Amino acid sequence: MYTFKSRIDSLLYYPSIGILAIFTFFFLWKSYIVAWIVFMLWLIYLVAKVTNTSYVIHDDGVLSVRSGYLLSRTINISDIKAVESYRGKKFKLSYALSVDGLLLTLTDGSTLYISPRNKEHFSFILHRHNLNISVRI
Questions:
Q1: How far apart are CA 99 and CA 29, in angstroms?
Q2: Segment 11-36, tens digit of pLDDT
Q3: Residue 118: count of CB within 10 angstroms of its CB
Q4: For the domain that residue 42 is a member of, what is the CATH number?
């Protein structure tokens, strides 16, 4: 079993957490309870996303992708057709915290955008489980 943490764009996520924390404390200080609850939940979601986004390659040929507490997905590695390097953000249910990541193309034609810290090693392990994967990094 191999676990890969997500690469994090620190210029995007860490200042966002700081600004949300400042607004959260401000709303608590001013007794704006509804705004405080909304910002606190948003802050918890963002911190959970930053600390719990990971990609796990299991020995039985399954890739588990997790982003925070809300998004998770399990994919058979035999269903992955191609892995290619991608620079840019795919916002549709993205499991990535960076604009520098990998785009996984599945056999059903769908794509999955992830951003492991070590893209080369991640691709190597995937290719070792499924030799039919086209790797372009």
A1: 36
A2: 878 898 999 999 999 999 999 999 99
A3: 12
A4: 2.30.29.30
